Amino acid sequence: MARLAGTGVFDPLGDRVGRVHDVVVLLRVKLPPRAVGLVVEVPGRRRVFLPLSRVTSIDPGAVITTGLVNIRRFEQRAAETLVVSQLFDRHVAMVDGSGEVAIEDAAIEQQRNRDWLLTKLFVRRRTPSKGGLFRRGESMVIDVGNVQGLAPTEEQQGARALLATMEDLKPADLADVLHDLPDRRRLEVAAALPDERLADVLEELGDDDRVSIVSALTADRAADVLDAMQPDDAADLISELPTHQASELLELMEPEEAEDVRRLLVYADHSAGGLMTTEPIILPPEATVATALAHARREDITPSLAAMVFVVRPPLETPTGRLLGVAHLQRMLREPPHEAIGTFLDKDIEPVTPDAGIGALTRLLATYNLTALPVVDEERRLLGAVSVDDVLDHLLPEDWRDADDDVTDQAMGDAHG
């Protein structure tokens, strides 16, 4: 079943329906677990339930269905266990008393009555070592009846197996997954993420979730994660923390990152100053098109900020020298790589001041079809830029991440078949 996760699901005509996300089994007393269906991720990141009775074949690289897929959102019931998310990495005891093993894979087999049963487990022994720790021991394939303790408990499964199923998720999608996890599980998974990955996810989460996650981290770890966040998102998060905790984290952050955050904290939440990032693409007028495009390709630059370069007089760190204009990505793609961006600046974009309200920002972005606006002081020095995604985050209701689910669930129903 480890290979089954991520496999494409197709209808009888060969059209792709989605991909397998997990397998649903029912753990039964004195009977092998029964596999009842697949959780399939369909377009729109919706996860739906596909009964195994509607699966006509399972081959390497393809699961074929009858073509009938219920689009109602999957909701796990109390009696159900998700194999990849909840069973893999679980520590169980061998019935013969030979010790504990960790489940690394499982096999399902179709019976004569066409039921699918979980019959085999691929496990690895946990061998005690010095200091009360365990080391990886021999691996083996055993019958499912040779272990006890399959019933799910939060303590039995580490976050490693669950994270392995999320490696390809975009930060926004991973944020949705974390939001839906139980509180304790959410903190375990978040703590296991690398700093950069966790920073990206925190930027996509709502205030309550990210405050609880950061508060559960050690102060040093939390400061490292804040360093990796965009300054405007870090400032928003720190503003939600208790004063003593916020002060401690600012002291532990890298001085330059902390200074950017402190500058942003003085502005009102819904003003240009409160919404802006201090790290857009900033270059001098003599920089070449090739240099500008290289900056636009950086992974830490969002698409909305990558669409334009802010051209200024030195210094290039915010607050910069005088803003001269902007160079649009589309225009740069039409110019020779050696051309200086100062030769084709757009000087008609009016910058905003830090106290500009969100209504003014919205009108300017919509009127001129822009993805970002420059924010300047009274001397026209660039302080930062407000991107359209930051404005949208503040225009939408606080629970917008759940709104689609609520509307969809009401329209489609809550059950799965």
TrEMBL record:
Instruction: Name the InterPro entries on file.
Output: CBS_dom, CBS_dom_sf, Mg_transptr_MgtE_intracell_dom, MgtE_N_sf, MgtE_transporter, SH3_actinomycetes
GO MF assignments: magnesium ion transmembrane transporter activity
Transit peptide as UniProt keyword? no
Q: Which GO terms describe its cellular component?
A: membrane
Gene3D superfamilies for the chain: CBS-domain, MgtE N-terminal domain-like
Give start and end of each CBS domain. Answer: 345-403
Task: Give the Pfam families listed for this entry.
Answer: CBS, MgtE_N, SH3_actinomycetes
Q: Which UniProt keywords apply?
A: CBS domain
Q: What is this protein called?
A: Magnesium transporter MgtE
